Amino acid sequence: MQPRTHVTLEDVAKAAEVSLATASRALNGMRVTPQLRDRVLAAAEQLAYTPNAHARALAGASHRTVGVICHDISDPYFAAVAGGVMRVAGDNDLLVMLASTFRDPEREIAYVSMLRAERAPAILLTGSGFEDPRWERAMEAELKPYLEGGGRVAVVSRHRSLKVDSVLPENRAGAAAMARALLDLGHRRFAVLAGPPALTTVADRLGGFRDELKKAGITLATSDIVEAPFTRDGGYGAMTELLDRGLTATCVFALTDVMAIGACAALRDHGLSVPDDVSVAGFDDIPIVRDLTPPLTTVALPLPQLGEQAMQMALTENTGRRRRIVRLGGEVVIRASTAKLV
């Protein structure tokens, strides 16, 4: 029987009645059940299928490098998540290629395209998605052929339109829990230091906090919210802006710990004390906030576990038709940066 040069991996998958990813892994000696492997190999033999080098590399036979794309590796949040990724990758003899986008959606798309060209067997997106239809279409256009060729994709945080395996920190619920905790401390006047509005993390955390305050009869005005970069300097600048306006809030909630650190520095530089003059709370529980003076009240997320779960998803065959979603909750940790009002 002469090889049919037009036979594709998709043809083999259809004949064996398995997904493209399963067919690719079976043909390249990676982990699938013996029954699935036998079906795929039999279909390939019957069709005289000859795999190409690109498909072999995507399946991981020759390439052992996983691409991890984050917003900013200098941010302790992403460093902790990446640490979890690297632990699982190391246990599986994989190298990690790490790239920072600095929250530039165009750069994120470009990195995915580069990793496709490098034939990485898996790509992990470990930062917030963008509320941007154009970005969503461009990212889907990059990921669809990659997935169809046997590549694996997993994301950390919410990416609205991407139909891929996801690890979701409970951002909205965590922010709502923080609002309840601060209300229980007696606070009724709040300000929020928010990040770029295009990020899904901002929408979820701000939405959860604002909605919970509304249930208590408290309205968070537009003037009470200051948008700034998700950085220490962004938090410093946002806090300074609030002070210049004439701060009336008794408690400032920063949507990330690094912004909260900047906010505390701005208050100190203006001669104000935390929490005697103003209470400050954050979100994430990056390691350094426990050692601040005073230590920071925050929503603690299991940051390394976010990365570990995403990497495990990328290494484990999804035999179902639906994308897998793992949700990891946060816990409010009250520390000395928030005072109880009497």
What does the model show?
This protein has 342 residues and is an alpha/beta fold. The protein folds into three domains: 9-58, 434 Repressor (Amino-terminal Domain) (Orthogonal Bundle); 64-169 and 303-329, Rossmann fold; 171-301, Rossmann fold, CATH 3.40.50.2300. The chain is 44% helix and 15% strand. The protein is built from twelve helices and twelve strands. The protein has helices spanning 9-16, 20-27, 34-47, 53-59, 76-91, 105-117, 133-148, 171-184, 200-215, 232-245, 257-269, 303-315, and strands at 65-70, 95-100, 122-125, 152-156, 165-169, 190-194, 225-227, 251-254, 279-281, 298-300, 325-328, 331-333. The strands form three sheets. A six-stranded parallel β-sheet has the order 2-1-3-4-5-11, sandwiched between helices. Strand 8, helix 11 and strand 9 form a beta-alpha-beta unit. Helix 1 packs across helix 3, helix 2 crosses helix 3 (34-47) and helix 2 (20-27) packs across helix 4 (53-59). It is elongated and about 80 Å long. The N and C termini lie far apart (87 Å).
- What is the global morphology? elongated
Q: Taking Cα atoms only, what radius of gyration do you get, to the nearest Å?
A: 23 Å
What is the end-to-end distance? 87 Å
Assess the beta-strand content as a share of residues: 5-15%
CATH homology group of the largest domain: Response regulator
CATH fold node name of the largest domain? Rossmann fold
Number of folding domains?
A: 3
Number of helices: 12
Mean of residue pLDDT values: 88
Strand tally is 12
Ranges where pLDDT stays below 50 over 5 or more residues in a row are 1-5, 53-62
* Structural class category: alpha/beta
Level-2 CATH architecture of the largest domain: 3-Layer(aba) Sandwich
Strands in their spatial order, largest beta sheet: 2-1-3-4-5-11
So what's the CATH class of the largest domain? Alpha Beta
The percentage helix is 40-55%
- Main β sheet profile: 6 strands, parallel
| Helix and strand sequence | HHHHEHEHEHEEHEHEHEHEEHEE
